[in-house]
Design a protein that fits this description.
The protein has one domain (23-138): RbsD-like fold, CATH 3.40.1650. The protein is built from five helices and six strands, in the order H-E-H-E-H-E-H-E-H-E-E. The protein is α/β, with parallel strands linked by helices. Strand 3 (74-78), helix 4 and strand 4 (105-109) form a beta-alpha-beta unit. It starts with 10 loop residues before the first helix and ends in an 8-residue tail after the last strand.
Length: 146
């Protein structure tokens, strides 16, 4: 255990978060997501099967700055047809709380989300059972003095 670091974050994930640079994206995906095949491009997959996607997102955002230089630093999977993902409000709440202000979240139809996620720096596979419980966050910068 380490002080100030959420215990949900294991050494493998901490290394990935540290290695990521400004603009790199992290995909936090649900139990139904094809994380192993999708992460084949990056070769970086961390499994946290006992955790929900929102708990993982909150733990990651305790250390991970969101990109402030883009219009939207977060993307969620949408069921399409103008419908919202059942977990969208929970993701929005976690993002806003961690960032200290309203975060613009962009909904992507399932196959567009898959395409974007394939380009992610890394994946975290969770045990999330809520449908469409997938989110991508874009890493920002740590300013001098932070």
């Amino acid at each position: 255990m380490l002080k100030g670091i959420p215990p949900l974050l294991n050494g493998e994930l901490l290394r990935i978060l540290r290695d990521m640079g400004h603009g790199d994206e992290l995909a936090i995906v649900d139990a139904n997501y094809p994380a192993t095949s999708a992460s084949a491009v990056s070769g970086r997959l961390v499994r946290l099967d006992a955790a929900s996607a929102t708990d993982v997102l909150a733990a990651v955002l305790a250390l991970f700055p969101l990109d402030e230089f883009v219009s939207s630093p977060a993307f969620v999977m949408s069921p399409g047809g103008g419908r919202k993902a059942p977990v969208l409000a929970a993701f929005q709440s976690v993002l806003d709380a961690a960032h200290g202000t309203r975060v613009k979240v962009t909904a992507l139809e399932r196959f567009k989300f898959y395409d974007r996620a394939r380009q992610a720096y890394a994946f975290v596979a969770t045990g999330e059972r809520r449908l469409y419980g997938n989110v991508i966050v874009k890493k920002g910068i740590v300013r001098p003095g932070e």
